[in-house]
């Protein structure tokens, strides 16, 4: 397995910070209007990974991330997990859309900035734009993506945005029938019915042929994947030669060279979050990079955007505590209530440096 090399480069700011690997896409909100923001410059450390570098530490084995008892038990566990994820989003997606809009993911903010509620939807759009910029996705008509897959699409906010931005076709997949139906209705209402389509499908067994998509997009869905190796393998499989993969996901912190695993109290906190959000075992950014390397992907880059998403969860909690948010959660069902009660645990994980909001991008060889 290739080793990793860390090089610092300066990028234009709008930095990210986000929670570690939760297994699918947790539907977060979108932003109201897009507010213009000043172009400022900050220095951000980006890690670029090459196949000829030395391994800094012994990484968590992929087998340990995915494994367990017997194959039969594992299949049953995964089926129960998928059922829980689908039901959670069937219940809660309408609430998120009503309060936050159709972008169910973190927003991107200037570090330590103070923001009002009206800024959050614009920050969600910035998250999309900053992710595209980080991955160096071209706006050149000759090079821009023409076919896109949105893996863990929610109600299709990213799919529709990307299709409009690039004049591309987009296909979204989700485990939630409610989300797929709502995503298609919104596409039709926005005049995108011939460009964007959605279906219920498993990200670990995508219903697409090899090499179909110029841009493979996964915005906060990796957290829900019980088999990270298979997940990354599917992202690589459906990418076209020369295509770009953008993975934005919650991870736990990278282990130090002397560590074999997280601390017991860290595991305990993540386990509590997993039970509420229907997540499998978490992994680190370094684990994801190792998996991308094992699939012979190129130009692998990763960054920790945790500082850039810091205002998001407090805003989500604040919106849940309004009368509208509170009554909606109570009406939606027990799974949504459990997820709402776990929100402070996400903030705790971020503050302790345990949860990381990671962006990882790469390119499939020509």
From TrEMBL:
Domain Methyltransferase type, chain residue ranges per copy: 149-247
Molecular function per GO: methyltransferase activity; S-adenosylmethionine-dependent methyltransferase activity
Signal peptide: none
Ranges where the record places region SAM motif II: 211-219
Pathway: Alkaloid biosynthesis
SUPFAM superfamilies: S-adenosyl-L-methionine-dependent methyltransferases
Xref: InterPro entries: Methyltransf_11, PiNMT-like, SAM-dependent_MTases_sf
PROSITE patterns documented for this protein: SAM_GTMT (PS51581)
Keyword terms of this UniProt record: Alkaloid metabolism, Methyltransferase, S-adenosyl-L-methionine, Transferase
Start and end residues of each stretch annotated as SAM motif I: 148-157
Region (SAM motif III), start-end ranges: 238-247
Record GO biological process: alkaloid metabolic process; methylation
Self-association state and partner proteins as the record states: Homodimer.
Homology family: Belongs to the class I-like SAM-binding methyltransferase superfamily. gTMT family.
Protein name: Probable tocopherol O-methyltransferase, chloroplastic isoform X1
Organism: Nicotiana tabacum (Common tobacco)
Phylogenetic placement of the source organism: Eukaryota, Viridiplantae, Streptophyta, Embryophyta, Tracheophyta
Encoding gene (name): LOC107793279
């Amino acid at each position: 397995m290739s080793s990793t090399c860390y090089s610092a480069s300066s990028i234009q700011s709008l930095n990210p910070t986000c929670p570690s690997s939760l297994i699918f896409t947790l539907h977060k909100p979108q932003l109201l209007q897009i507010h213009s923001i000043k172009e400022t410059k900050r220095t951000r450390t980006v890690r670029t990974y090459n196949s000829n570098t030395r391994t800094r530490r012994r990484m968590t084995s992929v087998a340990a991330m995915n494994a367990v008892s017997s194959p039969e038990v594992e299949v049953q566990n995964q089926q129960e997990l998928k059922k829980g994820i689908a039901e959670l989003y069937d219940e809660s997606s309408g609430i998120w859309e009503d309060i936050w809009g159709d972008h169910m993911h973190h927003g991107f903010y200037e570090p330590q900035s103070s923001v009002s509620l009206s800024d959050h939807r614009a920050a969600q759009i910035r998250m999309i734009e900053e992710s595209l910029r980080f991955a160096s996705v071209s706006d050149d008509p000759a090079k821009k993506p023409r076919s896109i897959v949105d893996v863990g699409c929610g109600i299709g906010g990213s799919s529709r945005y990307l299709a409009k931005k690039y004049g591309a076709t987009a296909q979204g997949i989700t485990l939630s029938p409610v989300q797929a139906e709502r995503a298609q209705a919104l596409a039709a209402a926005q005049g995108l019915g011939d460009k964007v389509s959605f279906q219920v499908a498993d990200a670990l067994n995508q219903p697409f042929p090899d090499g179909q998509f110029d841009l493979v997009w996964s915005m906060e869905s990796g957290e829900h994947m019980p088999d990270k190796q298979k997940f990354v393998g599917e992202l690589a499989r459906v990418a076209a030669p020369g295509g770009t993969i953008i993975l934005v996901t919650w991870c736990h912190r990278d282990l130090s060279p002397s560590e074999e695993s997280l601390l017991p109290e860290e595991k305990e906190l993540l386990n509590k979050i997993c039970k509420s959000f229907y997540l499998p075992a978490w992994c680190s950014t370094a684990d994801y990079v190792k998996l991308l390397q094992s699939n012979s992907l190129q130009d692998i880059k990763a960054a920790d955007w945790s500082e850039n998403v810091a205002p998001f969860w407090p805003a989500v909690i604040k919106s849940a505590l309004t009368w509208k948010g509170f009554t909606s959660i109570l009406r939606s069902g027990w799974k949504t209530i459990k997820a709402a009660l776990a929100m402070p645990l996400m903030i705790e994980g971020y503050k302790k440096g345990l949860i990381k909001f990671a962006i990882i991008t790469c390119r499939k060889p020509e």
